[in-house]
């Protein structure tokens, strides 16, 4: 168990800042100074503005496995089970997700809005969102329909959950090589679950997408050739 304490810092009656302190059971020889030094070493100065990249998040660069091992700690208003019913998917990792995003229009531009029925850096359609399980942001409700779909698709981390839900539900060996890996997930993302079998590069637009995807090299083919 742990408790949460909100600390307010005042100077001459002016509010400088507030922060939340999580109080865990006593750990021998572990104090604020130790925590601060670990943070500064983890992210080059303990940058509290850091987002998630390559499977690590925030100023301490915490992985999903570390978060799980720590007991799935969340904000008081959050739920560790939120969108957590998406099982492990074989051969799908942060590198695959990153390459799919980079190949998409805008080169994984997180500021992309909704246009012509597609939203966010992954250009997710509403049908795609529904097929993935109507995944939403923490405080949102799928009953809000278009608004909930757009809000999640525009949020980089929430959009990743949409892809995860979609690929888990419709995993298939699209290229028929006997292995389900990132190539198949990429084909599924571009072609759709019902017609993932045709090569993505069969059209000029598809060729541009596939060239960007292979240049990103999610399966490390160039590494193996060298």
Structure description:
The chain is α+β, with helices and mostly antiparallel strands and 226 residues long. It has helices spanning 32-43, 64-69, 94-103, 126-132, 146-154, 156-170, 182-191, 204-216, 221-225, and strands at residues 3-11, 14-23, 52-53, 56-57, 62-63, 114-115, 118-119. Strands 3-4-5 form a 3-stranded antiparallel beta sheet. The chain is globular and about 60 Å long. It starts with a strand and ends with a helix. The model is unreliable at 1-21 (pLDDT under 50).
Q: Which percent band covers the strand fraction? A: 5-15%
Radius of gyration: 21 Å
Give the end-to-end Cα distance, rounded to a whole number of Å.
Answer: 51 Å
Shape type: globular
Helix content class: 25-40%
Give the beta-strand count: 7
Largest sheet: 3 strands, antiparallel
Give the SSE string: EEHEEEHHEEHHHHHH
Count of DSSP H/I helices: 9
With strands numbered from the N-terminus, the spatial order across the biggest sheet is: 3-4-5
Described by its quaternary structure, the protein is single chain
Disulfide bonds: 96-182, 101-108, 114-119, 152-158
EC number: 3.2.1.17
GO molecular function: lysozyme activity
Pfam family, one: Destabilase
List the helices and strands and how they pair.
Blueprint: E1 3-11, E2 14-23, H1 32-43, E3 52-53, E4 56-57, E5 62-63, H2 64-69, H3 94-103, E6 114-115, E7 118-119, H4 126-132, H5 146-154, H6 156-170, H7 182-191, H8 204-216, H9 221-225
Antiparallel strand pairs: 1-2, 3-4, 4-5, 6-7
Helix pairs in contact: 3-8, 4-6
């Amino acid at each position: 168990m742990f408790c949460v304490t909100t600390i307010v810092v005042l100077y001459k009656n002016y509010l400088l800042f507030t922060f939340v302190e999580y109080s865990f059971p006593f750990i021998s020889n572990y104090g604020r100074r130790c925590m601060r030094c670990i943070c500064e070493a983890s992210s080059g100065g303990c940058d509290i503005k850091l987002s998630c990249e390559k499977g690590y998040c925030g100023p301490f660069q915490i992985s999903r496995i570390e978060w799980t091992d720590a007991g799935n700690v969340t904000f008081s208003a959050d739920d560790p089970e939120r969108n957590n019913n998406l099982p492990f998917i074989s051969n799908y990792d942060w590198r695959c997700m990153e390459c799919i995003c980079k190949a998409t229009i805008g080169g994984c531009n997180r500021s992309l809005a909704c246009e012509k029925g597609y939203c966010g850096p992954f250009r997710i359609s509403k049908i795609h969102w529904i097929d993935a399980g109507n995944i939403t942001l923490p405080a949102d409700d799928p009953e809000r329909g278009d608004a909930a779909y757009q809000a999640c698709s525009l949020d980089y981390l929430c959009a990743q959950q949409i892809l995860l839900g979609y690929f888990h539900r419709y995993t298939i060996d699209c290229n028929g090589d006997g292995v389900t890996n990132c190539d198949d997930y990429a084909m599924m993302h571009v072609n759709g679950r019902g017609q993932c079998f045709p090569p993505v590069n069969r059209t000029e637009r598809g060729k541009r997408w596939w060239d960007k995807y292979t240049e990103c090299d999610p399966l490390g083919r160039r590494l193996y050739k060298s």
